[in-house]
Amino acid sequence: MNDASAGSTIPTISCGTRTRDQPESHRRAGRLAAALAAAEVARGDRIAVMLRNDIEFLEVSLAIATCGANPVPINTRWQAREVAHVLADSGARLIIAHTEFVTIIEDSLAEAGVDPQVVEVAMPAELLDEAGLDRAHAELTHRHPTLEEWIRAQPDPLGHLDGAIADSMGLIYTSGTTGTPKGVLRERMTPHQLLSIAGGTAPRMGLAPGGQMLVAGPMYHTSPNAIAVLALRMGTNITIMPRWHAERFLQLVDRRRITQAKVVPTMLSRLLSLPAEVRHRYDVSSLTHLIHSAAPCPPAVKRAAIDWFGDALIEFYGCTEAGTITWITAAEWLEHPGSVGRGVDGSGVVVATEDGNPLPAGEIGQVFVRGADYWPSFTYLNRGDALTGPVPDYLTVGDTGYLDNDGYLYLTGRSSEIIISGGVNIYPAEIEAAIMTNDDVEDVAVFGIPHTGDLGEAVAAHVVARPGGALSEESVRAGLAGQLADYKIPTTLRIVTSLPRDDSGKIYKRQLQQTYPA
Length: 518
Fold this sequence. Notes:
The protein is α/β, with parallel strands linked by helices. Helix content is about 30%, strand content about 25%.
């Protein structure tokens, strides 16, 4: 039987066993915004947020925007040194954190030599149970004021402030998978830009008043956060997963008749790893928009996902600096397999040499992108101006790829990940896609390691097996023999239990490379 909340006329936010009416969440956010104003938080001030997925995450995000401050979400997997960098770099005025992270925050403040105020958010037992965490985290530290105390202290919500939303969208950090996270400082957006972004995003994402969306990824990442906040403003019913679990995802889609969800390719692969009888147990026909992005999707995974979810599967490619660049539907992908789509709303893609000379269709080079017509310009916080490159008005974030004759973009990896062996460029994405055609493979990372001879680099692969499969190094190599030239077949191949991916699906290949001596 479907959950009763799916048919409610008052939109709600649910997380685990907790449900709150959205009008109540708006009231709580307004009172928290008043508390922030009373604490002299000014427009443009940065407020760090270190919270697990929960209803309060959305309320805090909305409150910060209401008073015109900038939310700075922090990865909940980071340790004190990593947190300290963002706190110091952003100049955070205040920090809002779940009890679980208070000690890490305190250690990071000591490391950074800064002293902003900390507001502690209690962790309900239901959240801890759903996330599989120790119930000891339900006990407050009592070292800092709490979120509920701040809200109770303000009987009235903060009134409307013209331009507050524009002020709140000025700073966002990159994920830091290829280096230290960088603060992207955007120009202040005009009302036209704000409406254009919302108007372009909502229909492509499948958001609508009264719809049913599922937040599957961590809200400290830009995409799940921004989509959920937009959905809250639109009155879309929101179900939040405290943590990712493949079968639980299907259960929620079935029971709540979810229409929209945002995932990453790793999640798709893990859904496909579920036994057939488990996958067939749940009705996913309510999905109209199953959006994926953040990392390249192996064609074998994509094709299997289209077979399952059909036209609901939609992909986009973008970056923190320039927003969403390309979109591609399932039907388009079947005509252009492996592509991440074409530019929309005036965005652009150029594939060129490192010195900016455009390359013909089919030839691999550096990917240069330009944001949509309405996307704001930016600089890097504390790092000077934006990237200036050889293609006027375009920037590169290090991706490599090629365009086909119809202008569809195909990614081959990142320029920093290209393996040069014996003077030949080898693209990891090609090898990863070939390995993923093995039905027993759930995940893979291909990267370069030092060659013991004179070739410079050798090809290494770490492969994760699907549960219940019969994967071996021999079966992986045998499957590659007919697909790839011999110099592309990994000389080092390991079957491992997991890969160091962040929750958006991006992989930390440098961590893998560091396990091999120079």
